[in-house]
Amino acid sequence: MVYTSSLQLLKNLQETLVQKFPNEADTMAFQIVEHFSGFTRTDILVDKPMATGPQFDDQIQQITERVLSNEPIQYVLGKAHFFGRMFEVNPSTLIPRQETEELVQIILQDVEAKKGLLALDIGTGTGCIPITLSLENPNLLVEALDFSREALETAKKNAQALKANVQFFELDVLNNNLSKTYDIIVSNPPYVLESEKELMQPNVLEHEPSTALFVPDELPLLFYERITELALEHLNPNGKIYFEINEQFGDEVLELLTKNVFHQVTLHKDLNGKPRFVSGILLSA
Length: 285
Description:
Largest sheet: 7 strands, mixed
Strand content: 15-25%
CATH architecture of the largest domain: 3-Layer(aba) Sandwich
Shape: elongated
């Protein structure tokens, strides 16, 4: 058995990555060492020796080359953190973001004392939203949909690995209706304008699924309008809708819900102070 210095490996990776990723090299280096060793950051910093096999150097080199070529490290390692848990990710799914953790927290606070509510996540990707809702509040009944069969397979794997009770199904909401009613509908739909592509980092633009990111410039509210339309038919009276949004269109999404008989329509800011979420309650008949 060969043993490698985890701390020296960390330093080597930091030196390799820092020129291209000056602000992220430390985090990336820790993620790689943690991935191979299973160690905590404390283990690494006290230089706990890690057992390595004969292909180890080649594996480290391959991973480093992929990261340096702008492939997101989450795809390279096949996993991403969300709400304190590890989720499988791949190019069929968006990489979960911190902002979406904040959206989940808003929902959890709203439903904390309620039981038996049925929630639907539209455009689930990795399944991070419904899986987290189910695990954090087992009183919730949770379903999720996506039009991508590959994404749904990933979401199902994540639910199984994390022992979450979520029902998944395939549906294109732009062209199909729902079959039941819900107490909660949540969505983090595509909302980046096509014209914003030039502002995006290469690791996102070149690797994450474009169908989960972009909408035409002339239809910035495409998914919000359709999901609101579905909610009017498939959200129970006093049911609640939650959106993650493009910060440019907060007022427009507020107006969309308000004119469609939602009340207590609220624009929530994320931790960076940007308008990022909208929620509303459907008026009872």
